[in-house]
## 1
Amino acid sequence: MAKSPRFVPLAVMLYASLLFSCSTPDIDSNDEGDNIANYRTVKIGTQTWMAENLNYNISGSKCYDDDEANCDIYGRLYDWATAMALPSNCNSSICASQILERHRGICPKGWHIPSDDDWRVLTKFVGKNAGTQLKATNGWNSYEGISSGDDIHGFAALPGGWGDSEGSFNSIGVGGYWWSSLEISDNYASYRGMFYANETVNEGYGKSFFHSIRCLQD
């Protein structure tokens, strides 16, 4: 079984940037992108999160294995530039000057792509074994006694897997990965991952991977 990108050395993560248009996605041209009523939400501590993955069909997004049925369950997968509603060359160049403190990206109005600090606030509030507490109670493969999660906060994280810029997909059922707005360098941005064999929430890096999105209320 292929490992998640969280466990792959950074040198292996140097994917070529995607061949999309360099224009910024027009997220206001489709009401779906603005309709938070389409999604369950949950308040955890002082934060209000989507309680399911974004499923906004915008150019550059993908369904796992190119199967629309997977989008119905896990939402769509996005590379970082698409998630952030930035030009596609931001997957391979520094775009810090275009990133806002609460960066909406392709989230509905009044919501934003969570920052690295936002993710830390969540995991600090949840505390020990945050991955287990945030995972959905069903849908995860079991591993040596670790089976799904407790979902005691209603976050309902599902293992939607990941894709890459070459068209491959991996880890459905065993791993879930969600973008943050934090840019690390020209080729790297931060994301959070949960893995079926772990009870923690881990941090990974990349831009051209295709991951899920959980929007956070402003």
## 2
Amino acid sequence: MDPNEYYNQYASVYFENTVNLDLSDIIRPFTSYLEEGASILDLGCGSGRDSLTFLDMGYDVTALDGSEEMCSLANIHTDLDVLHMQYEDLDFDEVFDGIWACASLVHLEKSELPGIIKKISRALKPGGIFYMSVHKGDFEGIRNQRFFAEYEKKELKQLLGSFPELYIEDIWVTQDVRKKQDGQEWLNLLIKKNII
């Protein structure tokens, strides 16, 4: 099943399962790179949980998701005009101080990720910060009705090494905060865009 179809079909359940998760431990390192009132793109905002957190912190937030149903729920939750857009249609030119892609790139095929990172890099202002998280491991395929790709640190370092304007500030491993996902590890990356 296409991930967006999945999230359209299970939007309410996914919203309920994720909207109240506490991600402050990974939000803090990201926002430490941002000035007051900075512009953030929440890429794959899902329930809008993190968008609302960023709004409450005083940031200028643009929320975006590929699932129309998730956009509707996130719109209600955040009162933002959530953009319904696929990642491959991203077309921003140095607009954002920060880009937040929390668990939102996990459904891309590995061959698609470099193209999306290129679009993310273009959307980020020089000196901006990009956060992404992906499943840690070596699996690539269908699981729970959706496509997933897992990565190891070395693989991501190699991939990001092909973008001379980007460098990894930090990379670390966390456990899934959802109790039902025991054992699932996440790779978290903070990536800075050079000031040219």
